[in-house]
Amino acid sequence: MKGLGLVVLGVVLGVVLSVGARWPRSEVVYRSDQPATVAYADGSRHVLALVRERALFGESHKIFAGRDPGISYGHWVDIETSATSVKSTEWTSAGVRVLFDTGHELFIPARYFVGGR
Questions:
Q1: What is the pLDDT of residue 21?
Q2: Contact criterion met (CB below 8 Å) for 34 and 47
Q3: pTM surpassing 0.85?
Q4: Do residues 96 and 65 make contact, with C-beta atoms less than 8 angstroms apart?
Q5: What is the pLDDT of residue 82?
Q6: Under a CB-based contact definition with an 8 Å cutoff, are residues 107 and 39 in contact?
Q7: Pairing state between β 75-79 and 58-66
Q8: Which of 15, 81, 96, 101 is an S-S bond match for 85, by CB 3.0 to 4.6 Å?
């Protein structure tokens, strides 16, 4: 009976380690810092990032825009497209435009990421 308990414990530990290795995690796959030639009313420096989130059953992508260089607090946009590679970003006083390698474009107005959002 003790041997069976050890086998069950081994299986449970194996499953826990497998799940833990694939647990949700985020990875910044593209980053663009606001150029010095563009200024916003809050006087802060801003960043845009494409973040890949991996979960147990797949992955998703989000765009972050905000003044937090740690890419945690700011404006998030879920993207549902195969465009997972950024070709370029264009920062203007009106906002930031993201151009993907597939030809898709995403524009985020400055009012959504200026002021700490």
A1: 52
A2: yes
A3: no
A4: yes
A5: 65
A6: no
A7: antiparallel
A8: 101
DSSP string, the chain: -HHHHHHHHHHHHHHHHHHHHTS-EEEEEEEEEPPTT---TT----EEEEEEEEETTEEEEEEEEES-TTS-SSEEEEE-SS--SEEEEEEETTEEEEEETTS-EEEEEGGGTTT--
Chain centre to alpha carbon of residue 86: 13
- Both tokens of residue 9? 């414990």
Round to whole Å and give the CA distance between 107 and 93.
12
Predicted pLDDT of residue 54:
86
Instruction: State both tokens at 113.
Output: 């990421």
Tell me how many degrees the CA angle 39-44-46 measures, rounded to the nearest 5. Answer: 80
Residues 77 and 5: their CA atoms lie apart, in Å, by 48
